[in-house]
Amino acid sequence: MATVQKKLDVTHEIKLDHDNVRDLWSRYQQATTRDNKAVLANTLIREMAVHGDAEEVSIYNDYARLGLPGTAEHNKEEHAEIKKLVYAADSASTKSEEYDEVLGRAVNAFLEHAGEEEGDQFGKIKEALDAEENHSLAVQFLQARKMVPTRPHPMAPQTGGVAQKTVGAWGAFHDKVVENLGGRSFADLKYEHPDVSLL
């Protein structure tokens, strides 16, 4: 894990997730074996699932205060559609002839949403925060990444409150069991977040 030497920027930490998905998708498209594609698909699914839920239980709760009224609700609606697509990819066989298309629909929806956040929302967030608040929100986002499920649960609450956190904690435990029993393998990520335990 990277070490912390300065105040964190929440938009930078969110963009790291976006960039990891971009990189993993590029690697997936270049992969030549089914085994390599399966590992990259597992990693894409995990990263997209974790990212969406982490935003919902952390930064989105502050959007109205940051001058983005209604944007959190809009983002959650997009997340709900992305989760359905990611769930379809998680449920499909990586050996299927159609799998590239199924996974591609999820990744493209995720990246379209990521582009919207980066282009329309990040500037407003940074303008509304001083360095301490920005760092605090970044830490909250990184802590949330450690607590949320690692697989998509499209029927789970998206309130960003206690219900989502409670269901998420159960889901995170359940997902670890499923991943361990299923022997899922994951690829290394190109971009690393700071270690939350050092913050």
UniProtKB/TrEMBL annotation:
Every Hemerythrin-like domain range: 10-124
* Name the record gives this protein: Hemerythrin-like domain-containing protein
Q: Which organism is it from?
A: Jaapia argillacea MUCL 33604
